[in-house]
Amino acid sequence: MDIFLQQVINGLTLGSVYAVVALGYTMVYGIIQLINFAHGEVVMIGAMVAFSVITTLAAAGLPPLALVLLGVACAMVVCMLVGYGVERLAYRPLRGAPRLAPLITAIGVSIILQHVAMLVWTRNVIAFPQIIKIELYTFGGATITNVQLAIVVLCVVIMAGLAGLVYRTRLGAAMRATAQNSKVAGLMGIDVNRVIAATFVIGAALGAVAGVMVGTYYGIAQYTMGSILGLKAFAAAVLGGIGNIPGAMVGGVLLGVVEALGAGYIGDLTDLCRYGWLASLLDERCAQGGHFILFGSNYQDVFAFVVLILVLVFRPSGLLGERVGDRA
């Protein structure tokens, strides 16, 4: 039971980050039917900018909370500018083109942002400065750190704030109208270009926050970190129902929990195999060298894509359906 609780806590932390990143995917897709594969690289840029700001200001003796807030603020500003620039220069000219064109462009933008980040921050793994003192809280045999707790709480606040923005404000109403039918929304006086640009900017800001979370939680960042994170967040959006904001939240949390439980329990099973407990029940390779370790914690990425494949096969619309799936 202790292992189960611990893996659930780890999964909730990881799933909260997936959910925040998935919101950027699902907002853009819900409005313009585009999978913005460059979103993962926006998350990466947020982590890198925060690292640079925190490292530069750490020598000034500022309090840890002030350093983190300044890092997050600067990362959000830079990512919002990147998101607006990408939408304005790369996606807007192709809005009426066949769907394959913006998809290929999204992949190209992703590669460009990766290499720009490599030129600026080098290809080396960057270690985040440990400015926050880690505190442990134990309950029910499981342990949660203050960083994990802050990530989960912040993600809940972000999700609630975004839901309030989309469903309780004029901009949110314009977003929903544009998602329903952009041409009719334009005829009713809504500036469609402005709404779409605002969607990219908001998604980029969320990506910046998620990047800082990942960098703070794992303590490292690299110019390639956005690729696998973006793909997992995309899997989370598909799991919940891409185009559906509550679905992105549910999908992210579920994916994180499934990944943590799979890595924990199957990893333990294969460790038993390696030490000979289950060698008699498995093949000769397992008994000789423990090569059966296929789905341990080092292979936790497999679970995200297994879930994605299963969802696409058995429920393509996702757990909560797709809000814009029936649009002509």
Short overview:
This protein is mainly alpha-helical and 328 residues long.
Description:
With 328 residues, the chain is mainly alpha-helical. It has a single domain (2-314), classed as ABC transporter involved in vitamin B12 uptake, BtuC. The chain has twelve helices and four strands; from the N terminus they run H-H-H-H-E-E-E-H-H-H-H-E-H-H-H-H. The protein has helices at 2-32, 39-58, 64-91, 100-121, 146-168, 170-180, 182-187, 192-218, 225-240, 245-274, 284-289, 301-314, and strands spanning 126-127, 136-139, 142-145, 220-221. It has a two-stranded antiparallel ribbon with strand order 1-4. It has a two-stranded antiparallel sheet with strand order 2-3. Strand 2 and strand 3 form a beta hairpin. Helix 5 (146-168) packs across helix 6 and helix 10 crosses helix 12 (301-314). The longest helix has 31 residues, at 2-32.
Layout of helices and strands:
Elements: H1 2-32, H2 39-58, H3 64-91, H4 100-121, E1 126-127, E2 136-139, E3 142-145, H5 146-168, H6 170-180, H7 182-187, H8 192-218, E4 220-221, H9 225-240, H10 245-274, H11 284-289, H12 301-314
Antiparallel strand pairs: 1-4, 2-3
Helix pairs in contact: 1-5, 1-8, 1-9, 1-10, 2-3, 2-4, 2-8, 2-9, 3-8, 5-6, 5-8, 6-8, 9-10, 9-12, 10-12
